[in-house]
Amino acid sequence: MSYGYFGPRGTFTQAALASYLESNGVAAELERSVPFSTVPAVLDAVMSGEVDFGVVPIENSVEGGVSATLDALNAREDLFIRAEVLVPITFVLAARPGTPLESIDAVGSHSHAWAQVRGWMSTNTPAAQYVPTLSTAAAAEALASDDDVPYQAAVCARMAAETFGLEVLAEGIGDNASAVTRFVVVSGPGKLPASTGADKTTLMLFQHDDHAGGLLALLEQFAARGINMTRLESRPTGVAMGSYCFSIDFEGHLEDARVAETLKSLHRVAAKVRFFGSYPRADRRPATVVPTATDEAFVESQTWFEMLRVDS
Ligand SMILES: O=C(O)C(=O)C[C@]1(C(=O)O)C=C[C@@H](O)C=C1
Predict the structure, then answer these.
(1) What residues does the Prephenate dehydratase domain cover (predicted)?
(2) What are the structural domains of the chain?
(3) Is the C or the N end of the chain the one with fewer CB within 10 Å?
(4) Which among 242, 243, 308, 252 has a CA at the least distance from the CA of 280?
(5) Are the C-beta atoms of residues 185 and 19 closer than 8 Å to each other?
């Protein structure tokens, strides 16, 4: 199997891939994995078959959904999430060896990373301008190799600073010490990972039109079948101002009766349902299923219904 990730070397995404490979007993595959400089490039490589799996960030506990990933997944057909990985995010401020903190007037990093260190930066380098880069590690790589970069420091992972020979000026600079980013392992069509009892499913829902109660009509399908959602985000469809679709993660697997029933109902109610897969939860936390939403409860109600036909 071959793996691509949002690179270059030293991104948090590479750390997520390393953790995924290790937990699957194939840590050595990291050496052969291929970095791509943007999320769309990772997904294109999966679609073209250049790599079998791609790893991209999808959600951060401080900044929320990674729009670049949600939109890029949406813009491509036949991509499915096969696994998720959680990585604790600890940022360092790195610079070329010998750079004094006081001399820094511009800092490069990924926009998601910058948003997570804003407080520390405004206290410790109040004059520093932000320069956006493609990833945290891209900021570190360019700083180490290019004399013309318009910044003197990068916000990145310690691994990126070490990989590119930068000095760590400060560490643990995130405003929220418990920040976590969730990454997903994506592949083309294939076998759905087996149900484990601790799974998540990801969908994108499209409405027929914008009307009062439109989102409620979609959401009540989940509520009525006892399904707990873990993320809900609206994204512009790009068709017209005010036209939105909804990206949703929820507890459960396609093989669970309550999920199957919900999907069938959503197919009736929504203009379009994109199914991005069911996969094991990284934290292995079992789904909360109320007694009225278990597989047995659904089988029992189906049996009752069949009996009505026979007995009446
Ligand atoms: O730039 C990186 O290192 C990434 O892996 C991307 C990314 C993100 O998109 O959220 C991942 C984790 C951090 O929260 C900051 C940046």
Answers:
(1) 2-188
(2) 1-90+181-188 (3.40.190.10), 92-171 (3.40.190.10), 191-312 (3.30.70.260)
(3) C
(4) 252
(5) no
Q: What is the dihedral of CA 287, 296, 254, 268, to 10 degrees?
A: -110
70 Cα: distance to centroid of ligand 1 (angstroms): 14
How far is the centre of ligand 1, averaged over its atoms, from the C-alpha of 237 (Å)?
24
What pLDDT is attached to residue 112? 94
At 84 the three-state DSSP class reads: strand
Which residues contact ligand 1 via a Cβ below 6 A?
6, 11-13, 57, 60, 66, 89, 110, 112-113, 135-137, 181
pLDDT, tens digit, 9 for 90 and up, residues 184-204: 999 999 999 999 999 999 999
Helices (H), 187-275: 214-224, 257-269
Tokens 């948090």: give the residue: 12
Closest-lying ligand 1 atom to the alpha carbon of residue 138 = 1
What's the CA angle centered on 213, arms 211 and 214, to 5 degrees?
Answer: 60
pLDDT beyond 90 at 37: yes
45 pLDDT band, cuts 50/70/90, is very high
Q: Whose CA is nearest to atom 11 of ligand 1?
A: 12
Which is the closest atom of ligand 1 to the Cα of 135? 1
Give the burial class of 188: count Cβ atoms within 10 A of its Cβ; 0-12 exposed, 13-18 middle, 19 or more buried: middle
pLDDT digits (tens, 9 = 90+) for 216-269: 999 999 999 999 999 999 999 999 998 999 999 999 999 999 999 999 999 999
Q: Which of 198, 199, 218 is nearest to 207 (CA)?
A: 218
- Cα(60) to centroid(ligand 1), Å: 8
Percent of the chain with pLDDT over 70: 100
